[in-house]
Amino acid sequence: xxxxxxxxxxxxxxxxxxxxxxxxxxxxxxxxxxxxxxxxxxxxxxxxxxxxxxxxxxxxxxxxxxxxxxxxxxxxxxxxxxxxxxxxxxxxxxxxxxxxxxxxxxxxxxxxxxxxxxxxxxxxxxxxxxxxxxxxxxxxxxxxxxxxxxxxxxxxxxxxxxxxxxxxxxxxxxxxxxxxxxxxxxxxxxxxxxxxxxxxxxxxxxxxxxxxxxxxxxxxxxxxxxxxxxxxxxxxxxxxxxxxxxxxxxxxxxxxxxxxxxxxxxxxxxxxxxxxxxxxxxxxxxxxxxxxxxxxxxxxxxxxxxxxxxxxxxxxxxxxxxxxxxxxxxxxxxxxxxxxxxxxxxxxxxxxxxxxxxxxxxxxxxxxxxxxxxxxxxxxxxxxxxxxxxx
Length: 391
What we know:
six-stranded mixed β-sheet
C-alpha cells in the first residue's frame, strides 16, 4: 500500500507535467508530428497510476470479504456439528445463519444501489466523453503526400482571416510570393497581424478566404498539409522545453545523432555553453527550461529547428531574447546554407538587414515591401521602426 501510494504521487506529477508541456508546445507537436511521443508518455504514466489505484482499492477490501467468509464458515460448521444432538439448536443455528447472511447482504445491496445511482448521475458526462471518442479527426496527421517537393515558391493568394470573437479581419486580402531559398521578413507594430499571417503559412490556421499554394499545389488537404509540415521547421518566441536532457529537447527524441547535434548547436551559438555544463548534452533542461536563461532557451529552439533539417525555417521573434551580435551571428550561420528558405517575424531591424525581401504589415494588410535600403528610403513607418530599434 505504501509503495502504491508513492507511485500515485509520482505519476500524478508526471501526468500534470506531460499535459502542461503538450499544451504549451502544441504548435511544434502539430508541425513536427510528435503526437505519438507525448501520447505514449502520458499513457505509460496513466496506466501505472490506474494500476496503483486499483491495487489500493482491492487490498483495502480483501480483508473484509475474507473475514466475512471465515465467519460464515465457522457458524455453519458449528451448527452442523451440533445439529445431530439438539434439534432445537439446529433450528436456532439455521435462523441465526440466515439472519447473519441477511445482515451481510444488506450492505452489498446498498453498495449495488449506490453504484447504480453513481452511474446514473454520471451518464451525461460519460455520453459526452463517448461522443468525443467516436469522433473522427478532421485531419489525418500521419497521411503524407509523397509528391510534394518544394522547388519554386510559396504563393499566398488573397488570404483573409478573422478570429471567432473578432468583429474585424485580422488579415485582409494579402497576396505575396516567397521564392525558394530566399530570406524574407515580416515587420510591423504589435497587433498588426504578423504572427497570425505566420500561423496561416504554417498551416495552423485555415484562412476564411484565399489559398496557399506550394509550387502551384493548393494546400487544401490533410496529405498536402502534413507534407508541408514535414518540409518546415518553426521557432516560436517562447520556446518550450521539456524536463528531459538538452540533447533530447533538441532532437525531440531519445534517439540522437550526436554529429548532427554538435553541428546545429554550433550554428545556434549554444555549443560552448553546453560543453561547459557537467553533463554536457545529458544535462537536464528543467521544467520549461528552468535551468537555462531565456536566450539559451531560444538558441536551443533554433538548434531544434536546424536539427530537423527542413527546407523552410520559420522564425517568429526567435531572437528577441538575444543581443544583437549573437542574433546576427546565428542568422548568418543559418544563411550560410543556401538551400534553406527563411521566413522571419522580428522587431529587431538589425537582424533583417540582409533580407532579400521585407513585407511591412499594418492592420492586417501589406503596406509596403522591398529591400531594407528601399524601405528605409521610401516608407516613413519603416523609418520609425528602425529609429525605435536603434534607441
